[in-house]
Amino acid sequence: DKHDCNFDYKELGAEEIRKSNPVIVAKKEKQARRRAPLKHQTRHHHHQPL
Questions:
Q1: How many structural domains does the chain have?
Q2: What is the pLDDT of residue 11?
Q3: What's residue 26's pLDDT?
Q4: Cβ-Cβ contacts under 8 Å for 35 (sequence gap 6 or more)
Q5: Is residue 2 part of a domain?
Q6: Spatial distance between the Cα atoms of 10 and 7, rounded to a whole number of angstroms
Q7: pLDDT in tens, 2-50
Q8: Could you tell me if residue 3 is inside a domain?
Q9: b vs e for 16-37, b when ≥16 Cβ sit within 10 Å of the residue's Cβ?
Q10: Which of 3, 4, 8, 40 has the smallest C-beta neighbourhood within 10 Å, fewest atoms?
Q11: Is residue 48 part of a domain?
């Protein structure tokens, strides 16, 4: 991702998504944070449908 421009296109895209879908993005981030520490246990639990 090296180029002469300092503009962060990825962050701009993420910001646009957050502005247009604040609830959806917040929900995904919350789920990701909640699951992260439990990765080693996932195979012992049944996944519930979303």
A1: 1
A2: 78
A3: 67
A4: 42
A5: no
A6: 9
A7: 667 777 777 778 888 777 776 766 677 777 777 666 565 555 555 666 6
A8: no
A9: eeeeeeeeeeeeeeeeeeeeee
A10: 4
A11: no
